[in-house]
Design goal:
Layout (H helix, E strand, L loop, with lengths): L5 H24 L4 H27 L10 H11 L5
Length: 86
């Protein structure tokens, strides 16, 4: 019998949400009917919100630590991707 703890259950939930958002994104991208596309985009937003909630629970519980980014790395990323936003 497997005994899963909170970390394993939340990791599984986060992985499932990541998969769901990928699927709904593909559905929306490949949808020809505008109303159906809007429905998929709404569901996609809901799935992203759920994913964010699960991530926050994991982060606050110490199961998904995210180190602070160094300012030089932030500046580097901004400079590298600046042309994409023009």
């Amino acid at each position: 019998m497997n005994n899963y703890g909170d970390k394993e259950l939340l990791t599984d939930a986060l992985d499932a949400q990541k998969s769901e958002t990928n699927h709904y994104n593909t559905f929306a991208n490949e949808c020809a009917h505008p109303d159906l596309r809007t429905t998929f985009l709404n569901i996609l937003q809901e799935e992203h919100d759920i994913q964010f909630d699960v991530f926050n629970i994991m982060h606050e519980s110490g199961f998904y630590p995210t180190p602070a980014a160094e300012q030089t790395k932030i500046d580097e990323a901004k400079q590298t991707h600046a042309c994409e936003y023009k």
